[in-house]
Amino acid sequence: xxxxxxxxxxxxxxxxxxxxxxxxxxxxxxxxxxxxxxxxxxxxxxxxxxxxxxxxxxxxxxxxxxxxxxxxxxxxxxxxxxxxxxxxxxxxxxxxxxxxxxxxxxxxxxxxxxxxxxxxxxxxxxxxxxxxxx
Length: 134
Known about the structure:
Elements: E1 2-4, H1 10-17, E2 23-27, H2 30-42, E3 48-52, E4 63-68, H3 72-85, E5 86-98, H4 102-111, E6 114-122, E7 125-132
Parallel strand pairs: 1-2, 1-4, 2-3, 4-5
Antiparallel strand pairs: 5-7, 6-7
Helix pairs in contact: 3-4
């Protein structure tokens, strides 16, 4: 699992606690990564890969799941990178998106070769699930 924009590391930590075999959290902010390391220690989570880098720098690895709760502009700029790092049949879950912005994401992600696999909307916010087709 790849957590893009890991921040505090909460999604990566939860993934490990739920049994994900391999979890990698990346963020462009070194201070956020320090916080993620601290939170992993506080939660007694080991074998968590954390790195200061962008999703565009992920070159040799592929993942079954990508989680990203980051700014709309990053999602739009990273659609091809999400496709590239996903294994066939893999999912990318986007959260923290205003419902009014979902159509823009839909257009860009479809152009990138991803297929919408689900959505949940609540109080003007939406979480989207996209799949890389086999």
